[in-house]
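Problem 12. The chain below contains 272 residues. Write out its predicted structure in token notation.
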Amino acid sequence: MPELPEVETIRQNLRRGGANSPAILGWTIESAHVLWARTLAVPDVDEFEKRLPGQQVIEIDRRGKFLVFELSQDALLIHLRMSGDLMVEEGSEPRSTHCRMAIEFTNGQRLVFIDARKFGRVWLTAERDLILSGLGPEPLDETFRSQDLYHRLHAHRRRLKPLLLDQAFLAGLGNIYADEALHLARLHPLMLSNQVSAVQAERLWWAIRTVIEEGIRRNGASIDWVYRGGDFQNYFRVYQRTGQPCRECGEVIQRIVVGQRSAHFCPNCQQL
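Solution.
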């Protein structure tokens, strides 16, 4: 479930401290323990546990929905997928439930990767670009302009909702923020991308950035037991509001399935 704002919130908490989590920049790894082997995409468990000790956390970045830990020798990439989360614990405490990987630091603290559904993945690599190269542009990047979105939309003939979820098209968007952005831009989720006008593309570009920035400001959305701490769910326009009145016009919010994913929209504000 975690999308760009939720992942960014976790990054900021780990980097600067907050939400009961200390900043881990500068910490040195003492040991690593993989408790669910399939959590690792690369390398294998033995190499992973041998390479991490002694490395220091230099920086924590984000690319799309990936958390990127810059270590003194390698890059540690984590994708939370459906139910992943990262927490800092006292090393003397029992490991959290559903812990799939634990990294112990020399100061007695540990970083744990919790993943109830076991869909999350971890990479330890010296060549991060091999893993991240297929991602589309960052929605909040200063170099990504409305004209770029317009040209990217017209390079395809796809429905807007599934196209926005395609991480090769735009990095970081998921169900929540795609639905919210489309409503704010007053565009129907089934509209074909190559029929979007330049004015509509500019509105969509602005809407995507607006809902993402608002999501980050509110520490993401907490809609189930998976992600904790955010309150953006209290301000949803359409997502998971099926049958409720639109906050703009009062029309009843509807839900449809597009490409095996749900889409929530207002039939009045977002006419096809």
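Discussion. The CA atoms of residues 249 and 269 lie 7 Å apart. Students who got a different answer should revisit the alignment rule from Section 12.3.
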